[in-house]
Amino acid sequence: MIEDIEKVSYSEEVIRSRVQAMGQAISRDYAEKFPLIIGVLKGSFIFMADLLRAIDIPCETEFIAASSYGAGTVTSGVVKLTKDLTVDIRDRHVIIVEDILDSGVTLSFLREYMLDKEPASFKICTFLDKRERRSAPIEADYVGFECPDEFYVGYGLDFAEKYRNLPYIGVLKPEVYS
Ligand code: IMP
Ligand code: MG
Questions:
Q1: Which residues lie across from 83 on neighbouring strands?
Q2: Do residues 20 and 137 lie in contact, with contact meaning Cβ atoms separated by under 8 Å?
Q3: What pLDDT, on the 0 to 100 scale, is given for residue 160?
């Protein structure tokens, strides 16, 4: 697995300190609000686990799953809800947690879906933000890092369901795709 990685873009140490700071920011902004923190599966599960432990105010957690990608590295443009919410989000302060915001197609879809249910507030938290690839008009409220337009794996991010378990975020060698 490690031999497939061309370079490490975000090391474990860099990730840890950034996630800590994001957790503190959310704790500060949502004190007394009992936020409902919703992770988008599968990619967010590792970031979500670390972020939650960096948040020191009462909160509730939930997951939703959507998919827009096939086995390749380019979005299909079609988003499907593959696991629905199991709690009522009306009048709740919702924070949605993503591994990476790329074209924005997935989050635009999820935002519309959730705003329809009338939460008290709605914010977006993403670990990576690939801004230059954005096609949908959407901005995250909490961003770990703005990243260059590369294809990343590790820390929850996959290529064809592989590499999610790498403890750092890296870029694959080109020959791995072909
Ligand atoms: P979007 O709808 O184009 O914003 O895509 C968001 C989803 O695409 C993310 O939640 C990831 O699952 C996936 N994705 C986008 N860029 C990458 C990447 O660099 N590595 C792995 N997955 C990615
Ligand atoms: Mg994915």
A1: 65
A2: no
A3: 92
